[in-house]
Structure formats: structure tokens, C-alpha cells
Amino acid sequence: MPIVYFQMFGRTIPAGRILCRASVLALLIYGVLPQCAVAKLRHHYAAGVYLTDNGQLLRDLAGRTPGTYWIDGYHMTVSRETRICWHDAPLQFGSVLNWAGQPISMLETSSPCKSDPPDVSSKFAWLQYLGTEDFRYFTPLMTVTASRVDVWEVRNSGKVASQPPAKAAWQTLCTSADPHELRYPNEGPIDVVCDAKVNHFIEHVFAALLKPSSITAEAPATGWDLPSFYVVKPFRVSHNYDFEIIDGSRASCGTAGGNCRYTRPRAGSTVREIAYAPDGSVLIPDTVLVRLSNEAELTALLSYSAAATDQDFIGHLFRVQDFKGNVWSLSYKASGRQNSDETGHFISNVNEAQLRLGIRQMYLAGYDIRYAPFVWSVEQGKRIKGSVDEPNKHMPWYATYAFNAIDQLYPNVDYSKLKRGEREYQAFKDELRRVDPAAFTAAAAPGTAAQAAAMPTKPKK
After folding, report:
1. Which residues contact residue 64 at a Cβ distance below 8 angstroms, ignoring those fewer than 6 apart?
2. What whole-number distance in Å separates Cα of residue 3 and Cα of residue 309?
3. Entry pTM
4. d(Cα 234, Cα 398) in Å, to the nearest integer?
């Protein structure tokens, strides 16, 4: 077959070469370019649960009012196409994780639901949502479009079942004639710091998180109580899963992505970070308080702790860990599942939600949220490179996530109006030094960085 030639721009070119080049061009236009456009904005599956105390939000959901709401630390869009389902029963949490890393039964968008909302006079409800989260260039935009929202009752007067009702529990222990120690099964005693000024300062900051400041008056006051907390001296743990720590650590997974394990703190280690006990108490080692430089950093840590207790992350974590440890139990055999396959997703969900919710509550309380991204690193005594308000290439994943949350959700914040509380915190540390001078030596032990070198005293304006 003779070769066909075309004359183009004064040159003789074989027709086959022209067809080849045309095919390549078509591939670029119809294949590669659309892929580039898709890479700019992607939609990822989103599923989660959120305990709300916002009565207005529940009334808007009952009225099926379209809008964008603060749900689970996201900007969540509820449209007329969103299916809103009401249940006159509490949401049932279990020990088995579903494929989305949640300790609940997974609902599909088409699952049946009650169409008419019940009485919404109660402020408390669990919201179980399905939808899509927007990403641009693999960066989450912190916006979710809800396809379905299920509203479940909370029948214990707004209290999470695993959270004890004790308020400022340190007072009861510290006024007793018994040794000022906490005791848990199979573990040694934990020494409690019973200085009233130290504990009242922590209580004051916790209380500030429960009500919005005048700077952010658009938010309703929260109905939560103070978590049960204790300032303690560093303590050694004897067994895995007797205590839990949420500090941005990821679950370690096998090469195939399954068989994930999460053990924080490990048996035989000494706890020097904020930890959670099986009764829901927040245990705050005084060495943590030594490493911090201002009240804003403390507020970030306590805000994360409040989110963990309010949303029952700790109760869920203990149940999931207990189940994972009993691989030969009847419930394990009946379920036919291994939590180790979903643990990685579950731990990531908990960490990310704690960051979003903690930063939100910190902002509502009027504190400088730029101290939130690095505070888990500071708590561990790690040296921070760069300014507190500038991302850098050495950041751990959680700092990257937190900086992105601040950038996406709080783009126009006037930081000059937000509190840092440097002088107040230095006065608090003077009191702490008087009570336990050994804490300052332990916090600056070899392998850690002194706080003065870890963070600048003032972020850039």
C-alpha cells in the first residue's frame, strides 16, 4: 500500500505520522487534561458520629433547613437533597469497628428511617452522617456535603455513658486523710499533686473552654461539665491498654495495610503526657505543664482532652482495645472480624476529630489557635523548628493537618484579639516549681528540649 503524504507549512509529512500526532493530542485533551482537572478537586467518602449540644442545630435539622453548619469540626452542608433521619432510640456503640473505622453499625444512604422528627426540646443528640469531603491536590478543605444525617437520642441527660459525673474530682481526693493516690486494677499507685493553686488554675482554663468569649459571641454556650481531671506525677504502667493516650501517634500497620496495632502507652513505659483512665478521668502529669510556655498552649491540650471526653473518644477507644485484646472470645468468633484491620482508620479518625474540635473550642474561648498545631510535640518535649504560625517541612502529620484546618476554617482571624496568657502562665509555673521542683528537672531530661528553645515567646502578627 503506497504511503500517503500531506503538504503542511511547506513540508511533506507522511499521513501516518500526522495521525499518530493527532492521536497523542487527543489523548492529552481527553485523557490527561481531565485527570489534571480532577486532581484539583476530589471528593472523598466521609462518615462519622458527633455528639451535639446545639439545640438550634437540632431544630434546623428538624425543619430540614438547608445551610452550612458546624458539625464534627467541619463546615457541613445540608441541602434539600440531604436525607435526614430521626430515631427515638439511642445510638448503639460497640466493640467492633465497621469498615469506615467507626464502632457503630454502618448505615447506607438508602437505609430506612423515620421521616417525622420527634420532640427536639432536648439539646443533646448523636448525629451520624454520611457524605463527601472535598479535597484539592490531596489537601482536605474541611468541608463536607452531607448525603444523610441520622439523629439519635441521648437518654442520659446529655451525659456520655462512660463519662463519670464527678466534677473537679481532685478536690475530693485531696481533702481526704487517705494517701493522695489514684489506684486502678493491676497498676501501681499514681501520686496526685494536691496543691490548690495548681489545680484551680487548670480548672479555670477548663472552665474557660465551656463558654464562648465576647470575641466569638456567635457561638452558643456549651452544656458540658468539667471533665474529671487530676494533676499527677509521671507514673509507670504495667500493662498495655490499662490507660490510653491520644497524641497524634498513628497505628502501626502491616505492609498490606491490615493488622494495625495501637498501644499508647506501652507496658513498662513512664507516662509523661496527658493520659486517660478507664473511668474517664484525665490524668495530667506535671511535667507536661513544665514544658508549656503560655496559657494558649495549655488551652490547646485541655481543649483536646475536653473533646476526647465530650465525644466519648476514650470510651470508644477502651472498648475497641479491649475487644482487640480478646481474639479468642466468643464475641470475636461470632463477629468474624478483626479490629486490627480497621484500627488504623479508627485512630486516624479520632486524632483528626480531636484536632478539629479542639481548635474550634479553643477559638471560641478566645485563645490564639496558632499554638494548637505544635502543642502535641511541645508536650513530648520535642524541639520545634520555625515560627509557631508558619508551617515547615519538618512538621509531624498532625501539625500539617491542624495548620490546614486553621487555614481553611479560620481564614480571617484577628489574632491580636486572641489571648496567649504568657505572664499568667509564668506565675502558674512559679507555683508549680515550689510544689514539685523535680518536675522541672524531669521535663528537661536528656533527649528532650527545654521549652525556652522549643517555641518562640510570641508568634508573629
Report:
1. 80, 84
2. 77
3. 0.83
4. 24
Tally Cβ neighbours within 10 Å of residue 208. 22
Residue 365: pLDDT over 50: yes
- Is 60 exceeded by the pLDDT of residue 21? no
Distance from the Cα of residue 323 to its chain's centroid: 22
Amino acid making up residue 311: Q
Helices 343-364 + 295-310 axis angle, to 10: 130
Question: What confidence tier does 328 reach under pLDDT thresholds 50, 70, 90?
Answer: low
Residue 410 has pLDDT above 80, yes or no: yes
Cβ neighbours around 322 below 10 Å, total: 14
CA 78 to chain centre: 22
Q: Which residues contact 91 (CB under 8 A, 6 or more apart)?
A: 49, 104, 126, 128, 152
Which of 377, 347, 345, 373 lies closest to 359, judged by CA? 373
Cell reading at 383:
524541639
- Listed in sequence order, the residues at least 6 apart from 104 whose beta carbon sits closer than 8 Å to its beta carbon are 49, 91, 92, 93, 94, 98, 128
Going by DSSP bridges, is the β-strand pair 275-276/282-285 parallel, antiparallel, or unpaired?
A: antiparallel
**Does pLDDT of 187 surpass 80?**
yes
How far is it, in rounded angstroms, from Cα 250 to Cα 346? 10
Q: What are phi and psi of 44, to 5 degrees?
A: -105, 150
User: Cell match 439545640: residue?
Assistant: 55
13: DSSP letter: E
Q: Left if phi > 0, otherwise alpha if psi is -120 to 50, otherwise beta: which for 186?
A: left
